[in-house]
Amino acid sequence: MTTRLKLLFTAMVLALTVAAGNTFEADTVGGVFRLNGEPFIIKAAELHYPRIPRPYWEHRIEMCKALGMNTICLYVFWNVHERSQGTFDFTGQNDVAEFCRLAQKHGLWVIVRPGPYVCAEWEMGGLPWWLLKYNDITLRSRDKRFLDHVRSFENEVGRQLAPLTIDNGGPIIMVQVENEMGSYGADPDYVAAVRDIIRQSGFDKVTLFQCDWSSNFEHNALPDLLWTMNFGTGSDVDKEFARLRELRPHTPLMCSEYWSGWFDKWGAAHETRPADEMVAGISHMLDRGISFSLYMTHGGTSFGHWAGANSPGYSPDVTSYDYDAPINEWGIPTDKYYRLRSVLLRDNPLAAIAAVPDPPLPVAALPAVRLSEYAPLTAAATSTVHSPSPLTFEQMDMGYGAAIYAATLAETATDSTTLDVPGCHDWARVSLDGRHIGTLNRANSVTSLRLPPHAAGARLELLVEGMGRINFGRAVSDRKGITSDVIVGGSPLNNWDITLLPDAYERAVAAFSATDTARVARDAGFYRGTFTTDSTHLIADTFLDMSGWGKGQVWVNGHALGRYWHIGPQQTLYLPGCYLNEGENEIIVLDLIGPEGDPIISGLTKPVLDRLGKAEVATAATRPELYEWDVVMTMDVSAGDNWQTFELSKPLFGRFAIIECGQVWKEGDAPAIAELRIVDTDGNDIDPSRYTIHYVDSEDFTSGNNNAAKSIDLQESTRWQAATGAILPQLLVIDLGDEHEIGGVRLLPTGSLKSARLYLR
Ligand code: GLA
Q1: What is the tens place of the pLDDT at every residue in 335-379?
Q2: d(CA 57, CA 97)
Q3: How far is the CA of 299 from the centre of ligand 1 (A)?
Q4: Mutation pick for ligand 1 pocket among 77, 121, 176 (CB with most ligand atoms within 8 Å)
Q5: Which residues are annotated as catalytic?
Q6: Is the minimum distance from the CB of 258 to ligand 1 under 6 angstroms?
Q7: Which of 100, 331, 387, 663 would disulfide-bridge 754, Cβ 3.0–4.6 Å?
Q8: What structural domains does the chain harbor?
C-alpha cells in the first residue's frame, strides 16, 4: 500500500470507529452494565469541580486514572451556575463541560448528577439561596415555582452537557435524577417530574438512574429508572443490596456513593475511616462484579461560603472537604490511595502504565505576613434597612454575609434582663452601647443571654453572621439573619436598623478605600497585608495558619479561601499556589471577633484539620441521677443491625429520653447505636430534626468520630459508640425539644447492644 493509501485506510478505520460510536446500557436481563456490548464494571471516582481550582482539574483527573478508575462521577452545583436568578455562568471555574472533556481526554467515562438538589455538604445542597425569597416555597417538591426554576436550570445543563453523552460521541454514560430523595420524603411524582425535566433537557437517550439508601429507596423508586444504593466504608455490602436483589433480581448492581471517609463539622472531632475497611469493601464489590463510585476519591475544598451545614440541629461544615479520601485535599496520594490502587490494578493491569502524576506545584511554608492595614466592618456596608421587626437576609435580597441589627431599648432596666433570639441564624455578637455582652450560637443552641442593667435609650446591636445553609433533611429551607422576633425581658423589640455586610471580595476592598487604614485594632474588622513571592518564597501550595484568629474568611488575590473558626477542628486554610502571583500578593482577612494577638499569618507545609479549640469543647449537662427517674421500658435488642421497634405498655409524656445501655452481646464491646427515634402513640417518629444530645457518658474517638450526635444525625452509616473499656451502664440522654406523648422507641443498633432501659422525664 502506498503511504497515501495507508493514510486513507487509517482515516477510514478511524471514521468507522467514531461513526459506530460507543454504546452503554444497563442490561436488566443479564444483570450487568454493557459498554459496546461487553460487560463493564463501573469504577468511578467522585470529584467536584468547584472544590478543585481549575488549573488543577487535569491533575486530579489523571490521579483518578492512575488509581485505576475508569469513570469520573460529578454533581452539577446549581447555585454556582445561577448565582442570581436567570443569569447562568458555565465559564472558567464553572465550565463543567470542559471538566467532562478533560475526563474524556484521559480515557475516562463520566456520570453526571445534575440535582437539582445534591446534598454534598454544599451550601443549601446546591439549591440557590434566592429560592428562599418566596416566603412559602416548598423545596424539592412539585411546587410550581420550584419546578419552573428547576426546568430553566436543567435546560442550561442540557445545553452544556447533553452534546457530551455517549450517544453523541461524548463520555457521559449515565445521568442521575434528584439525589437520595428517600431521606427527604416520599413523593415519587416529584421525582418523576424531575426525571421528565432532565429527559426534556437533552438527556433522552442516556441511562437515567436514582440513588438512595437500602432502607428507604422504595419510597420514591420509579419503575423506569435504574436503582443504585449508597453506603459507606464498614457497611455489609450484601445486605445493602439484599432488598434490591429481591425486587429486581436481574438488575446490574452499583453502589453509587461508597463513602471513603466523612466530612467535618465546626466544633466536632475530625472524621476518618480506616483504609483497610474501605479497601475491603471495594474488593468485595469487585469480586462480585458490582460497580461503584468512590465518594469522595478527592474531596478538595469548599472555598468561599460554599460549605453547607448538617441537620438535625445546625452543624455547619468546615471548609476543608478532605473527607479522609484517597487523594487528600491538596491532591497528594495517601496510604489509602496506594492500598486501593493495588486492588484496582489487580483487575485493570492496563492502568498500571498510568504513572501517578506529580502535583502541579510543590508545597512550601510561607513566612509570617503582618496584616497591618485595618478597616472596621461598617466600612464595607452597602445599605441600612429600617424595619419594624427584624428581616431575614433573603427578605433584604442578600444571599451571604453578615448584618448588624440595631435597635433602641425604650425602658430602663435596673436588673438584668433576658435577650432571646430563637431565630438567630447563625452566630451573633451582642453588644449594648458598644460594650460586648456575649455571643449567640445556633450550632450550640445558645440563642439567649442576660443583658446587664441599662438606661432607657441604650442601643442594642447584634452582628449576625449567616453560615452555610443546611444541605440535608427537611431543614434545607434555611433562611439567614434573624428569622424570629428579638425578645427583651419578655417583649418583642421593634424598630430595627439593619446594616448589610454582603460577603464579597469587592466589599472588603471597598472597606479599605472608605476608611483611614492607619489604625491597627484588635477588633472585628478587615485586615490587609501583602507579601512577595520570589526564589526563596516560592509559588507553591501552602496552608494558612489561622489559629491566632477568631472567626471569619480569607481572600488571597481576590480568591475566597473559605471560613475559619478558632473552635476547630480545622485551624488552617488551604491556599493553592495557583492563586499566587509572581511578585506582590494580597491577603485580606475578615474577622468577626478579631485576632488574639498580632494580626499575623504564616503558611505551614501541612494542614491542621484535627485540633479542637479549647474555648468551645462541648460541655454537656451533668449525669442525671437515675433514682429520680422511672424505668418505663426494658429493651431487649437483637444481635442484628436492623431497625427494631419497642412499644411502651402505655403512652407517657416526656421531653427527655434516657437510654441506659446495660448489656452488650460480646464482653468487652462498647455499646453503640446508629440511629434512635422516639415515636408517638401512632408509631410515627417525633420530629428528629428537633432532637439534641442532652448528655452522654462517653464517646469513642479511636475508630473515627463516634460521638453521641451520630445517634440522631439521620445517617444510618454513622453511630454513637461508648468509649472502649467504658464501664456499663452507659447513658445517652436525648432532648426532644418539647414535651410529647410518647409511644415507644425505634432503634438501629450496630450489633453490639444487647439490652437497654428507657427512662422518661
Ligand atoms: C449522601 C449524599 C452526598 C453526601 C454524602 C455524605 O450520600 O448523597 O451528597 O452528602 O451523603 O458525604
Answers
A1: 999 999 999 998 777 666 789 999 999 999 999 999 999 999 999
A2: 12
A3: 12
A4: 121
A5: 180, 257
A6: no
A7: 663
A8: 41-304+313-353 (3.20.20.80), 377-502 (2.60.120.260), 517-604 (2.60.120.260), 626-760 (no CATH)
